[in-house]
Design brief:
Elements (H helix, E strand, L loop, with lengths): L11 H20 L26 H22 L4 H25 L12 H13 L8 H23 L17 H19 L4 H19 L12 H18 L11 H23 L17 H24 L7 H8 L1 H15 L2 H4 L5 H5 L3 H24 L7
Helix pairs in contact: 1-2, 1-10, 1-11, 1-12, 1-15, 2-6, 2-8, 2-10, 3-4, 3-6, 4-5, 4-12, 6-8, 7-8, 8-10, 9-10, 11-15, 12-15
Amino acid sequence: MSETTVTAPRIDSIDVLRGLTILAMLFVNDLAGVAGVPAWLKHVEPPLSDGMTAVDVVFPAFLFIVGMAIPAAHARWLAAGRTLAQIGYHVVTRAAGLLIIGLLMVNAEHRAPNGPLPGNLWALLMYVAVLAVWQVVPRAGRGRRVALAGRWVGVAVLVGLAFLYRGDGAPGLIELRPRWWGILGLIGWAYLVATTAHLALRGRRTGLLGSMALLYCLYAAYSVDALPWFPEWVNGAMLGSLAAVTVAGAVLGTVLVPGAPVAPADRAVRWGLLYAAGLALAGFLLHALAPVHRIFTYNKILATIPWCLHSSAITAAVWTGVTWVTEVRGCRRWSRGVTRAGQCALFAYLLAPVAGLLLQYLPQALGGHDPYGALGLSFGPGLCRSAGFAVAIAWLAVRLRGLGLGPRL
């Protein structure tokens, strides 16, 4: 919950890539409730089969982008005079914030119907409190006092909601459970591991590549039950293969820091293409071992090594294309709105379930008629519905951020 931020130019290509990814995530999440969706726009079925679709690449793209931003962020912090202890504090609190929000979001999906708060009220209050706790705090003035007061009120509300929560099959004074950490929680673990590696290795590209390989080895060892000392609330995918995707992004991010030898943009594009090709080739070769063990299949649920490598390769290739269009060719006008969406990605991600909860009240307000649900009864209207939902949520996040609202982690 950092109250100050380092003022420095952002890397537009990362914001554009993040914006495209949050739009894709909002789109596919809403599309999951639409009838008649073709297989390539759904997660692979059955869930543990050997294969991947376009939808299966969206989440690891976020992990990769988190890694891409790490080298430039560290360079800005060091240039601003932050000590290693200050950077470490920021990293730990940021990761903890993602873990807490992820935990709350997962438990919101497992609420018992007989809880003390009716309907969706617990979840709505939780999201409002989360936005208040992780609100951007102005540096001075009345706005700062209001934001700090809102933060403490949000903390109090979250504590109260923890005691009021009732979950499926989770008895106890506090029934919140780390069933899994959610998308944000998984990002938090991966961010913590990748940032620690980057700090320890001082951003050396060769060292980061080596640490990525070691993280895949960690995942493999865990998957064959060679690490029985792992605690129940984490696993080899969280700290191994998924973290390796974020480290892979950090490797690409090293070409974007000031003074990097890979410059100008056309050389960065060539480097990005070679890097993407190398990741894809590694995933292809390791997939040949699929008959040996399932960790060498393509599978999102298991966070397998070939799936991670191919997802990283695709994300690197998309970044390369974005950079070529915007930096080499100079076509930037189309990307302005996407860039702003990328700067508000977390806000948009939190606004989406709030909108979903509110839409559930729509039939009650309209006497039983559900126009939003009706659009999802067939693929064509549902496709347009989901695209409109993604754009509307991103637009709302940008507008609210322009008013000084929204979380910052």
